[in-house]
Here is the input.
Amino acid sequence: MTELELCEGVVEIGEDSFKYCGHSITKIIVPTSLRRICDSAFLDSLRTPIRLLDGVEIIERFALNGCIFTNFRVPPLITVIPYGMLARCKSMFSVELPENMTEIGNYAFNGCYCI
Here is the structure.
């Protein structure tokens, strides 16, 4: 699988949904209806930045852990970056955080050597 387009109406990407896809996903389109990305949903899977729209409210532990991309924008409704969410994203050099961020969990950016 190299391209992924989620249909409008999808509100949640479940736990481990695309886990261990071997960084094969090079294009991803998420719907405006998406609200939650569960634990380890894209762990070691993405080879491209994921553009999350402003309606995303929750991103859980390890959701984007080990992905290969250079930048990431945290949607404005996210107030907590959980444990290990972006850990091991070794090529990431920039993260845009919303103003209302209240907590960055342990190991959230562990192994992100370029930030």
User: Anything to note?
Assistant: The two ends are 29 Å apart (CA to CA).
